[in-house]
Design goal:
Number of domains: 5
Strand order of the largest sheet: 12-13-5-16-17-18
Radius of gyration: 37 Å
Largest sheet: 6 strands, mixed
Distance between the termini: 89 Å
Helix content: 40-55%
Strand content: 5-15%
Number of strands: 18
Number of helices: 20
Structural class: alpha+beta
Length: 649
């Protein structure tokens, strides 16, 4: 039985055996003596201690209750001892004072390690990987050349892509077999950064020049600037590809948030896939110091402060985890209650995952829809504060939580804990600002729809009002508008548009009985506004063409809105008075069942028009059917008296 103590090592609370602590202390003391005359000795020792603390954390994550003598000696072996420096044996003896008794306690336990034969397991090969090390790991497992596996993977790429990703996620790395093994990790390279160091970090990870990832992220942005089609009206953005610049930007931001900075020498070495030991840490620090005089001391203090802050924040959690792990290790078996608790925990995590997934997908869909509506913004939102609030709502209220949740999930998966408090506070603050923008936008736009104009009905002069039959048809666009054919967002009012004009199908037809023997047509223009005067002005600006050729009455399907006057529920109500004994048919291509309306004002067109018109005079009709006016009202031509239309039900 050995005594276990808790130490605060580089900002981490580490449970360690007392004998192991003595070995560690003697090792650190030997390093201090060895690097006593080196430039940047404090930074070298600090980075070595940080690396040892990371390796301690890896040991504890595997379920160990505390750090043992074997763990300490494995870590020392991976890091290297001062006497292992090539060509410096005599220097080591001089710097250590030739006292080998001080080293015996951490050397002798190396011989105590017992290695037993282990069953063969599948690992991803970190030392020979191209992407993830899956192919080289499979080759090692079956004892064949890894080139063969890679060729087979390329040939059958379509079939093995998903299994490759699953193996990449599920199979452990070969670096987990031995503490401190060489491996490559993805960091942000702060020494070669332009913006956050994401591109340079990707370049180091994949072994390519940093300008290649930068160009990959830059090309979509240039394409976005030069191509209006990226913001096509109601087009579904290609968010999952880099051909659409907001997608590339969001990917870059997410990588910025989830990837840690390469701060310590160990981080920089792992970023490049180099071995982390005493010699490499020393060379890395001294190389940095050659180009940046005086930077090493400040760099070490910043690392120390961050490590201490990290320890204060996560020390109690680590201690609690070690206590729970020790308790779990002492239990020989699970009772029925433990099994039920485990099942309940799994179910709770599943529900939480479904809820988070639903929230992300919902917000993502709203964000994509809003991006598709960006060209419409200029026809609704005024410049100035409304425009600022609209952008703030889109970016801060909608996209910030999407990016935040995705970043949180990824950081949980990769167990990233650095800067968690700062990121959480930043996202919450940005979302609060987003709420302010949303509320301000709604309040501002609502005021613009507060009042409705005074209705004024205008008569339309017909060239032949005494025809026996009037056929209402849709007039052509004359090539002015471009119809939207995308089915992702089948949302009007702006299904047709040009760069400075939008087409709004806010037109309704009323059919009544004429008091004369001639057809009569009237037009009622309506609009909302922030005042009665503005509503009247916008209604007067509405232009609508009606023309008659023989028995055909040609109507435009909608009205036009420009970027100056904006859309404020402008609409047209066409009243056709049909004489008794005469017929009327409305072409079935006219689909005016849905009207565009922003419901900020309860006193909207139908209510206001009902106050203007007598609703009892209006008669029901359907497109594509011929009707005749009788004393009792419209009757369908050719309709059997026992039959009925759907609208009669």
């Amino acid at each position: 039985m050995k005594k276990v103590i808790n130490i605060n090592f580089q900002g981490r609370v580490v449970p360690i055996e007392e004998t192991s602590y003595d070995i560690l202390k003697q090792y650190i003391d030997s390093l201090r003596r060895f690097f006593a005359n080196e430039e940047g000795k404090e930074e070298i020792i600090n980075d070595i201690e940080s690396r040892i603390a990371e390796l301690f954390a890896e040991v504890l994550k595997k379920g160990s209750t505390c750090i043992t003598d074997i763990d300490v000696n494995n870590i020392i072996t991976s890091m290297g001892r001062p006497e292992d420096f090539e060509g410096e044996e005599e220097n080591v003896k001089t710097q250590l004072g030739g006292d080998k008794n001080q080293q015996s306690s951490y050397e002798q336990t190396t011989n105590q390690q017992q290695f037993t034969g282990e069953p063969r397991r599948l690992f991803r090969d970190e030392n020979h990987k191209v992407l993830g090390g899956v192919c080289s790991g499979i080759a090692n497992y079956f004892g064949i050349d890894r080139i063969i596996i890679r060729i087979l993977a390329i040939v059958t790429f379509g079939f093995v892509f998903i299994p490759y990703l699953i193996v990449w996620i599920a199979v452990p790395s070969s670096a987990t077999k031995v503490i401190g093994s060489t491996r490559k990790r993805l960091f942000r390279d702060m020494d070669d950064k332009i913006l956050a160091g994401v591109a340079s970090g990707l370049g180091n990870y994949f072994g390519v020049n940093a300008w290649i990832p930068r160009v990959i992220f830059l090309i979509p942005f240039l394409s976005f600037v030069t191509r209006w089609s990226n913001w096509g009206m109601f087009d579904f953005p290609h968010f999952l590809s880099l051909s659409f610049s907001p997608g590339a930007t969001i990917i870059y931001i997410i990588l910025w948030l989830i990837l840690p900075e390469a701060i310590t020498s160990a981080d920089k070495l792992e970023m490049k896939g180099e071995r982390v030991d005493l010699n490499s840490i020393k060379n890395t620090i001294q190389t940095d110091m050659e180009g940046f005089k005086g930077r090493a001391e400040k760099f070490g203090e910043e690392i120390k402060d961050k490590a201490q802050q990290f320890g204060k924040e996560f020390g109690p959690k680590a201690q609690q985890f070690s206590t729970e792990a020790a308790y779990a290790a002492r239990r020989g078996s699970r009772g029925l209650g433990d099994i039920i608790a485990l099942i309940a925990k799994i179910f709770a995590y599943f529900i939480l995952g479904v809820v988070l997934f639903t929230i992300v997908i919902t917000l993502f869909a709203i964000g994509v829809a809003c991006l598709g509506l960006l060209p419409v913004k200029d026809f609704i939102i005024y410049d100035g504060w409304q425009n600022i609030f609209a952008w703030g709502t889109l970016l801060l209220f909608i996209w910030v939580p999407v990016i935040g949740i995705i970043a949180w999930i990824i950081r949980k998966l990769i167990k990233a804990k650095r800067n968690s408090f700062i990121l959480r506070g930043g996202f919450i603050a940005l979302w609060v600002v987003g709420w302010f923008c949303l509320i301000s936008l709604i309040a501002s736009v609502t005021r613009d729809f507060k009042y409705t104009n005074t209705p004024v009905e205008d008569n339309v002069t017909l060239t032949n009002a005494r025809v026996a039959k009037l056929e209402v048809r849709l007039s052509g666009y004359n090539g002015k508008y471009y119809k939207n054919h995308n089915r992702w967002l089948e949302i009007e009012p702006f299904a047709g548009f040009t760069e400075d004009t939008a087409y709004v199908p806010n037109t309704r037809i009323r059919i009544i009985k004429s008091k004369t023997d001639s057809f009569q047509v009237t037009v009622l223009k309506m609009s909302d506004g922030y005042s009665k005067a503005q509503a009247n002005e916008l209604a007067e600006k509405v232009t609508y063409n009606i023309s008659q050729t023989d028995s055909v009455l040609a109507l435009y399907k909608g009205i036009t809105i420009n970027k100056t006057d904006k859309f404020r529920n402008q609409r047209i109500i066409i009243t056709i008075a049909v004489p008794v004994g005469k017929r009327i048919m409305i072409d079935d291509k006219i689909g005016w069942k849905n009207h565009v309306h922003f419901g900020f004002n309860n006193d909207w067109s139908d209510r206001r028009s009902r106050n203007f018109y007598n609703d009892d005079d209006e008669q029901d009709w359907d497109t594509g059917k011929e009707y005749i006016q009788t004393e009792k009202g419209l009757e369908r031509v050719g309709k059997d008296k026992y039959s009925y239309d759907s609208e009669d039900i």
